[in-house]
Amino acid sequence: MHIGVPKEIKNHEYRVALTPGGARELLARGHRVSVEASAGGGAGYPDDAYREAGAEIVDDVEVLWREAEAILKVKEPQAAEVARLRPGQILFTYLHLAAEETLTRGLLDSGATCIAYETITDAQGGLPLLAPMSRVAGRMAVQAGAHSLEKAQGGAGILLPGVPGVAPAKVSVIGGGVVGENAARMALGLGAEVTILDKSLARLEVLDHRYQGAIRTVYSTAETLEQAIRESDLIVGAVLVPGAAAPKLITRAMLAEMKPGSVLVDVAIDQGGCFETSRPTTHAEPSYIVDGIVHYCVANMPGAVARTSTQALTNATLPFVIALADKGWQQALADDAHFLAGLNVHAGQLTYAAVGEAFGIDAVAADSCLR
Ligand SMILES: NC(=O)C1=CN([C@@H]2O[C@H](COP(=O)(O)OP(=O)(O)OC[C@H]3O[C@@H](n4cnc5c(N)ncnc54)[C@H](O)[C@@H]3O)[C@@H](O)[C@H]2O)C=CC1
Ligand SMILES: CC(=O)C(=O)O
Ligand SMILES: [Mg+2]
């Protein structure tokens, strides 16, 4: 199969969808890999590293998109990229469609087959292609939150660990999945007082056992959320209902209950955000203030640590890319129900129910596209 890897064009997105090592694995299996010139530069992979692996470097992005059978990306396609997709072409990347109606309709109109990293499942009930970036974003969320608490960013001027004689900050993490656990671990390591709220008792039990009480676990209800809002200096939004738009857990009215200069880091922003006042921001201007509360809502947090993230992403995606290339998309998805869960759009049809629900579009069963 001919696989094309374009340079990412989202604001301050420095990741690339394939490392030279990943390209080498595909080439060894007889596939063709084309990489757009300088696509890996931001992640520390010069064009020569891809050439040495045997890949072709393509200067003209239009040629790359026109000739490749499958396009491998990191972020959801931007408008210029949607326009380049063609019927029958495969797109394999993060899509987060439930947060983006225009993108959803654009992909439907393209006629392409679009497989989302973030809805692929595994036998343990996890999301194996979202997890590596969730680990990165969870860890970064506390760095971002700590920075946002500084006065110059509009924060309350609080140091997360405090100092001897001054109490540490209170950090609440809403959603104790991969992002939430990684954020809580970082906050704990920095000496903050950490609470995780989740709707899943089973998940809270795992976390309680793992951290032996060092992290408080609280079942998430309207009442416990209100208490967290009143007490916290930093709140990390990390909930997910896979493939669906994030529930709005903190409304604008509730901001009035927070301490002035407190910080909301909405990691769930790529699924639309879990705070009513969240709107997607970029690494160029990551935060803004509403009613005295600092909001950090960067939708591609891992792009800022592109080297680490690119390696972690390729580690997770490569087995799926190999299956796709070796077998073709229909056979690869027919052989693996977890991979099939990644199919969001095929030949003008929506194949993911939660996205359909977000926009009132009828969805068909993904396996109906395999016949
Ligand atoms: N902004 C960024 O750069 C990035 C954003 N993300 C996003 O972070 C979000 C979280 O991802 P993961 O941690 O991997 O998901 P996950 O599935 O591992 O965890 C989500 C957790 O939320 C809990 N939850 C669901 N609804 C809830 C509710 N109403 N109240 C409390 N808890 C609730 C679930 O029980 C689960 O434990 C996703 O939207 C993901 O796309 C991930 C990576 C990068
Ligand atoms: C998951 C995601 O949206 C990201 O890594 O940017
Ligand atoms: Mg987005």
TrEMBL record:
Q: What's the domain of life for this entry?
A: Bacteria
The Alanine dehydrogenase/pyridine nucleotide transhydrogenase N-terminal domain covers 4-137
* UniProt domain Alanine dehydrogenase/pyridine nucleotide transhydrogenase NAD(H)-binding: residue ranges: 149-297
Tell whether NAD is among the UniProt keywords: yes
Reaction(s) the record says it catalyses: L-alanine + NAD(+) + H2O = pyruvate + NH4(+) + NADH + H(+)
Keywords, in A-Z order:
NAD, Oxidoreductase
Q: Which SMART domains does the annotation name?
A: AlaDh_PNT_C, AlaDh_PNT_N
Question: Does the UniProt entry include the keyword NAD?
Answer: yes
UniProt xrefs under Pfam families: AlaDh_PNT_C (PF01262), AlaDh_PNT_N (PF05222)
Q: Name one GO molecular function term.
A: alanine dehydrogenase activity
Q: What class of enzyme is it?
A: oxidoreductase
| UniProt EC number | 1.4.1.1
The record's similarity note reads:
Belongs to the AlaDH/PNT family.
Name of the protein this chain belongs to: Alanine dehydrogenase
Give the organism, scientific name: Salinicola endophyticus
Q: What is the lineage of its organism?
A: Bacteria, Pseudomonadati, Pseudomonadota, Gammaproteobacteria, Oceanospirillales
